């Protein structure tokens, strides 16, 4: 009973999406105390990712509203529920949309990060423990989003989705490691693993693709070929180590043939970050025979089918796919934060915009117009 006495609801501002595609509304929301294996945290900084936009737009999926979006963030633990021993109030943390229970077959596997219990679930709007939401307005429940719902001054997250990090790390920078940047960077350094001096192609130069390029730069790749339909990405991409740019629109032949010619036989590694099926096939077919590895990161449409001649495999090309950069959130992300602290990974260049929480809808505008890579939303003024 002690838990019930110690913990009470908080009434705080949260940005509620009442309807698909409509601007968020800042509302006073009741945030219930954390239950068994849950953590309530104060969000200090959050950023907007394409996945938020995709589900807010709710085109072609089951709409789930009202809902509090947001999944890239940095904050501080306020209170913990029953059974939480690894975290305490005051800990600096990053919530992550996919978790690590540390007990399932995936968590026990050395190679997998696809936790059975806490793997991303975009259709669930409630907590696992009791199937209820921790957010409400006048008793009416508001749905969670991917277990994080960071567009709220306080949120409740399963302990398995909370990464404890170095308290000296600036949360307004490392918050972007919650999702997109880790996804792209990890796809390169953990999965593609380019050797020093190698050639890498990156398809799609949004935040994830630029992070994949940053991974290639950090790995010492000598040529990084960026592939994108928007020529205005060239200047920006250079900051992330991209040395050459290919716009498929500038060529009559398939982009894989262009890249094979540019590199006398193909790239050593390629990373696909658009989710377009044709790009996925190009990314695979543009790797060098004998040793080339292609890594798929972008999420394809429901009906997409991957078609290539099996000879491409027999000629010793490898095709892989990865999720969240193959990082186990709780075990691996603290070390990635340290990489930033040791200046081995640059985060500032991803952050193009900043807005106060009251202007969160501006962050949506910047991303919808393609102006921003990452916009940091400051919860406090
Ligand atoms: Zn697990
Ligand atoms: Zn994301």
Core attributes:
381 residues, binds zinc ion, globular
Word description of this protein:
The chain contains twelve helices and 17 strands. It has 381 residues and is α/β, with parallel strands linked by helices. The strands form three sheets. Strands 3, 4, 5, 8, 9, 16 and 17 form a seven-stranded mixed β-sheet that branches. The chain has a six-stranded parallel β-sheet with strand order 12-11-10-13-14-15, sandwiched between helices. It is globular. The model has no long low-confidence stretch (mean pLDDT 96). One zinc ion binds at residues 49, 51, 71-72, 179-180.
Given as residue ranges, the uncertain stretches (5+ residues, pLDDT < 50) are: none
Largest sheet composition? 7 strands, mixed
Shape verdict: globular
Distance between the termini: 37 Å
Topology, number of strands: 17
Helical segment count = 12
* SS-derived structural category: alpha/beta
Counting copies of identical and different chains, the oligomeric state is single chain
- Succession of helices and strands: HEEEHEEHEEEEHHEHEHEHEHEHEHEHE
Distinct ligands, ions and cofactors found in the model: zinc ion
């Amino acid at each position: 009973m002690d838990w019930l006495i110690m913990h009470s609801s908080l009434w705080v501002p949260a940005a509620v999406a009442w309807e698909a595609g409509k601007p968020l509304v800042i509302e006073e929301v009741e945030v219930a105390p954390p239950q068994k294996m849950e953590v309530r945290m104060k969000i200090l900084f959050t950023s907007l990712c394409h996945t938020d936009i995709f589900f807010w737009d709710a085109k072609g999926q089951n709409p789930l509203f009202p809902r509090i979006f947001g999944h890239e963030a940095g904050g501080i633990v306020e209170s913990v529920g029953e059974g939480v021993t690894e975290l305490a109030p005051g800990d600096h943390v990053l919530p992550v949309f996919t978790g690590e229970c540390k007990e399932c077959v995936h968590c026990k596997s050395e190679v997998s990060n696809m936790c059975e219990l806490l793997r991303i679930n975009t259709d669930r709007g409630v907590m696992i423990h009791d199937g209820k939401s921790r957010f409400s307005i006048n008793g009416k429940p508001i749905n969670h989003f991917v277990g994080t719902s960071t567009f709220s001054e306080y949120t409740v997250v399963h302990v398995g989705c909370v990464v404890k990090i170095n308290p000296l790390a600036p949360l307004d920078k490392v918050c972007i490691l919650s999702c997109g940047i880790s996804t792209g960077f990890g796809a390169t350094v953990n999965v593609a693993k380019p050797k020093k001096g190698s050639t890498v192609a990156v398809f799609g130069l949004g935040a994830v693709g630029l992070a994949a390029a940053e991974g290639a730069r950090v790995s010492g790749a000598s040529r990084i070929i960026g592939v994108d339909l928007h020529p205005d990405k060239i200047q920006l991409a250079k900051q992330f180590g991209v040395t050459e740019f290919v716009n498929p629109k500038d060529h009559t032949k398939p982009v894989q043939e262009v890249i094979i010619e540019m590199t006398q036989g193909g790239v050593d590694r390629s990373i696909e970050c658009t989710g377009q099926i044709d790009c996925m096939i190009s990314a695979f077919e543009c790797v060098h025979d004998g040793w080339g590895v292609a890594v798929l990161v972008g999420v394809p449409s429901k009906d997409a089918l991957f078609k290539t001649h099996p000879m491409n495999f027999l000629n010793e090309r490898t095709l892989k796919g990865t999720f969240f950069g193959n990082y186990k959130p709780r075990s691996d992300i603290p070390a990635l934060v340290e990489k930033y602290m040791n200046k081995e990974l640059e985060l500032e260049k991803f952050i193009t915009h900043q807005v106060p929480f009251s202007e969160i809808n501006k962050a949506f505008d910047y991303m919808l117009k393609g102006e921003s890579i990452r916009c940091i939303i400051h919860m406090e003024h």
